[in-house]
């Protein structure tokens, strides 16, 4: 009996040391780990982790294509969230790529590609579709029990077709990008383009609605988010209207101000091909970066003055993430790049990462 208790205590201490070592290594500035979803030439799906020097940490085969990734605040775990309309998300051990859990959506629900973890590491919220009322947005609420996520309930997103969600700096207020598009189960076909209802929602994590704002064009689907440390919200859109129209594909909500278009020059808006994929804020350098993969262009602006810092070609530019010197950008068809943004002239250099077949999102830990 005593021996069994001692063994259990030893295992618990070893686990705590391993987790502490993981946390310490992250705090001490170990090389960034880039997490993303990636396919191979045969169309097989992987959850991958690479160092920026090109070394592969893991490439775990998964059954469904993933989209965004979130990491646990203290444990070496990350959830690779299913791309719409996937029903499986994958909890991965970041040390070796071990598949810890396949998280399956509830009946009559599918994932919308994004999720967040509360700062205490216990609660997870994922955007989901209620397929009994196609497009009705819900947040699936999950709780960690050991190393497994267990469904605990759901909340309304106060909108239709939610895509990305994020935390405000207080760590208690959620921002939801409701895309406004209804889709049925197992389908990416839009059902309501003539009656879209996109919105930007702020809500408490108990479900209480705080605000709901819209842009001037009803067919401008609010999709992806970046949140600054000062509470600035930046959202990028996908326009579902006619090809002859120009849409406000980047919007901003500064503290105490309404949700409104970011002042992007008309020529740049026209060069985005009505589609954006990923957005990021660099707080220290006061920059905002945006990828437009259908237009094969990367854009960077000064967050405070809206001055254009970069408008550069990049084939099928996909995910964008922040590193101390600037931004890392992946590509669906070409080389991944690091953009050094510390000087007046922004310089991009190719990274020794595999070329092409990357998803539209990346996550750096």
Give me a quick take on this structure.
With 365 residues, the protein is mainly beta. The protein has 2 helices and 28 strands. The protein has a domain at 68-214: Methylamine Dehydrogenase, Chain H (7 Propeller).
Notes on the structure:
This protein has 365 residues and is mainly beta. The protein contains two helices and 28 strands. It has helices at 2-27, 266-270; strands at residues 33-39, 45-51, 56-62, 66-71, 77-82, 88-93, 99-104, 109-117, 123-130, 136-145, 148-160, 162-167, 173-178, 199-204, 209-213, 220-227, 233-239, 250-253, 260-261, 278-282, 287-292, 297-302, 308-313, 317-323, 326-331, 337-340, 347-350, 358-364. It has a four-stranded antiparallel beta sheet with strand order 3-2-1-28, with no helix packed on it. It has a four-stranded antiparallel beta sheet with strand order 4-5-6-7, with no helix packed on it. Mean pLDDT is 91; it is low at 1-28.
Features:
365 residues; mainly beta; Methylamine Dehydrogenase, Chain H; 2 helices; 28 strands; globular
Portion of residues within helices: under 10%
* Beta-strand proportion: over 45%
Number of helices: 2
Based on secondary structure, the structural category is mainly beta
What's the Cα radius of gyration? 20 Å
CATH superfamily of the domain at 68-214: YVTN repeat-like/Quinoprotein amine dehydrogenase
Distance between the termini: 41 Å
- Return residue spans where pLDDT drops below 50 for at least 5 consecutive residues: 1-28
Strand order across the biggest sheet? 3-2-1-28
- The helix/strand order is HEEEEEEEEEEEEEEEEEEEHEEEEEEEEE
Total beta strand runs: 28
Supply the CATH class of the domain at 68-214. Answer: Mainly Beta
Q: What is the second-level CATH architecture of the domain at 68-214? A: 7 Propeller
Q: What about the largest sheet? A: 4 strands, antiparallel
């Amino acid at each position: 009996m005593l021996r069994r208790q001692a063994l259990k205590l030893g295992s618990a201490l070893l686990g705590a040391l391993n987790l502490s070592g993981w946390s310490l290594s992250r705090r001490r500035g170990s090389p960034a780990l880039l997490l993303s979803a990636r396919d191979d030439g045969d169309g097989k799906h992987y959850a991958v982790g690479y160092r920026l020097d090109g070394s592969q940490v893991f490439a775990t085969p998964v059954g469904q294509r993933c989209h965004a990734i979130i990491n646990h605040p203290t444990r070496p775990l990350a959830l690779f969230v299913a791309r719409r309309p996937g029903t499986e998300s994958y909890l991965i051990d970041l040390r070796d790529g071990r598949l810890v859990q396949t998280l399956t959506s509830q009946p009559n629900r599918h994932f919308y590609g994004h999720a967040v973890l509360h700062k205490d590491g216990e609660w997870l919220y994922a955007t989901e579709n209620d397929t009994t009322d196609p497009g009705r947005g819900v947040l699936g609420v999950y709780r960690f029990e050991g190393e497994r996520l267990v469904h605990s309930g759901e909340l309304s997103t106060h909108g239709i077709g939610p895509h990305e969600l994020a935390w405000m700096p207080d760590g208690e207020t959620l921002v939801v990008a409701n895309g406004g598009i209804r889709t049925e189960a197992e389908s990416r076909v839009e059902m309501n383009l003539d009656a879209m209802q996109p919105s930007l929602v702020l809500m408490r994590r108990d479900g209480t609605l705080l605000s709901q704002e819209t842009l001037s064009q009803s067919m401008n689907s609010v999709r992806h988010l970046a949140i600054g440390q000062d509470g600035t919200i930046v959202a990028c859109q996908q326009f579902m209207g006619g090809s002859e129209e120009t849409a406000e594909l980047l919007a901003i909500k500064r503290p105490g101000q309404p949700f409104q278009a970011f002042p992007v020059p008309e020529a740049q808006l026209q060069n985005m091909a009505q589609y954006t994929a990923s957005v990021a804020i660099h707080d220290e350098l006061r920059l905002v970066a945006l990828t437009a993969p259908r237009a094969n262009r990367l854009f960077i602006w000064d967050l405070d003055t809206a001055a254009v810092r970069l408008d550069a070609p990049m084939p099928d530019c996909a995910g964008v993430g922040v590193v101390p010197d600037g931004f890392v950008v992946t590509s669906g068809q070409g080389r991944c790049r690091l953009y050094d943004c510390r000087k007046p002239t922004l310089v991009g250099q190719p990274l020794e990462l595999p070329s092409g077949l990357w998803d539209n999102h990346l996550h750096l830990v």
